[in-house]
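Researcher: We plan to redesign the surface later, but first we want a full-length starting point. Tokens attached.
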């Protein structure tokens, strides 16, 4: 558009000049020593203008001739970078298809272009890892770091991610631990560490990471709460493996309130304490939790408590007023009645539970009771019916929170019924 406007202006100016030139061409004479030039002003002006144009063209030609090598080098650079990008793209496609050797070749070709070298070497590292050649993988990572020293954190994270993606979480953690302490606190590092600790089920390390995750707001809030939940759930199991009742009690006291309210956390903690022989220390916790919020899984565990069975039985009977016909509560009442030597009452509770929901475990309990009462034929019939049913316990539902799938609480290793009568 600018060129069109400029052309129109030039044409108008030329036409105007031509009109004036025709009316009065003017006269000019130039004398220099023995030379005398006489001509019209119009012709003189045209000659001056033409000379200026020729001089400008010659000047631009000289400049272009001087810059030609530089422009040629620039063209080669851009052309080479374009070829390198195409090689990089082809390498990524081969990588996604699992064609590791072909991908590595394309990345190496692309790495010849300096501006593409860091990304190309990272791709080559993934391809080498895909072939199981860890030494070459680490060599490519070093080359990437040499070509982009200012991006060492990003490249180290990429190295750890590659190791993690190929199932080497322990190597990835070691890689991240080599970072300076300040860089270990970066959001990207913390996020990857949280994933790696979860993958390796390193619950103490994940729990220790929680304050940094929260302080730096590394995760969306709901993801953080899921991670927190998972860490404490894992810690309960971790302490349970080391048989440390005091450590488990201390962990419970230090847990955030919202974590202690989770059904599966309560269940795992109570079961752990029962297995440590600390049922009396947690009965009040379980009783308060059931009064606040009902849970079939927790009432099932309540029936496994040792201690003052008479008090436990009285409390469970009070719950029956609000939860009549609950087969899990009736099973618990049957167990508690057996421990209190209330045999007929125990029989009624177990039979009522079976009328509502036939279950292998309840048949087992009733069979044990009938065998103890010397009612052998009835006991054998209960065992037969129990064996015909699935062995899965209907009162141990999968406990879920958010997107995290948690393990069922393990059944405590305590006796379920008295073996002798008094």
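Model: Full-length starting sequence:
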């Amino acid at each position: 558009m600018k060129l069109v406007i400029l052309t129109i202006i030039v044409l108008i100016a030329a036409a105007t000049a031509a009109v004036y030139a025709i009316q009065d061409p003017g006269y000019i004479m130039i004398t220099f020593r023995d030379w005398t030039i006489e001509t019209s002003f119009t012709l003189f002006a045209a000659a001056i203008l033409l000379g200026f144009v020729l001089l400008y063209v010659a000047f631009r030609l000289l400049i272009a001739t001087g810059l030609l090598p530089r422009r040629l080098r620039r063209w080669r650079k851009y052309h080479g970078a374009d070829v390198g990008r195409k090689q990089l793209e082809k390498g990524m496609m081969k990588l996604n298809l699992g064609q590791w050797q072909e991908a590595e070749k394309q990345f190496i070709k692309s790495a010849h272009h300096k501006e593409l070298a860091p990304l190309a070497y990272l791709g080559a590292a993934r391809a080498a890892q895909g072939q199981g050649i860890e030494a070459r993988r680490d060599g490519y990572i070093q080359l990437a770091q040499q070509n982009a020293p200012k991006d060492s954190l990003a490249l180290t994270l990429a190295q750890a991610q590659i190791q993690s993606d190929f199932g080497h979480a322990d190597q990835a953690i070691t890689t991240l631990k080599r970072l300076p302490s300040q860089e270990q606190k970066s959001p990207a590092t913390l996020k990857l560490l949280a994933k790696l600790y979860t993958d390796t089920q390193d619950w103490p390390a994940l729990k220790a990471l929680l304050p940094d995750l929260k302080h730096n707001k590394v995760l969306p809030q709901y993801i953080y709460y899921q991670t927190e939940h998972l860490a404490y759930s894992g810690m309960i199991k971790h302490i349970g493996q080391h048989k440390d009742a005091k450590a488990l009690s201390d962990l419970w006291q230090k847990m955030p309130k919202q974590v202690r309210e989770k059904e599966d956390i309560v269940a795992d903690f109570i079961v752990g304490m029962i297995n440590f022989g600390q049922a009396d220390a947690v009965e009040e916790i379980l009783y308060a939790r059931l009064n606040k919020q009902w849970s079939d899984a927790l009432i099932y565990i309540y029936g496994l408590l040792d201690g003052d069975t008479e008090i436990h039985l009285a409390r469970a009977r009070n719950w029956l007023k609000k939860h009549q016909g609950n087969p899990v509560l009736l099973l618990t009442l049957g167990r508690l009645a057996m421990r209190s030597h209330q045999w007929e009452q125990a029989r009624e509770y177990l039979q009522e539970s079976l009328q509502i929901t036939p279950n292998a475990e309840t048949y087992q309990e009733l069979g044990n009771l009938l065998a103890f009462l010397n009612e052998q034929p009835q006991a054998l019939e209960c065992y037969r019916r129990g064996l015909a049913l699935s062995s899965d316990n209907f009162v141990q539902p999968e406990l879920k929170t958010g997107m995290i799938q948690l393990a069922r609480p393990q059944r405590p290793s305590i006796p379920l019924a008295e073996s002798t009568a008094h």
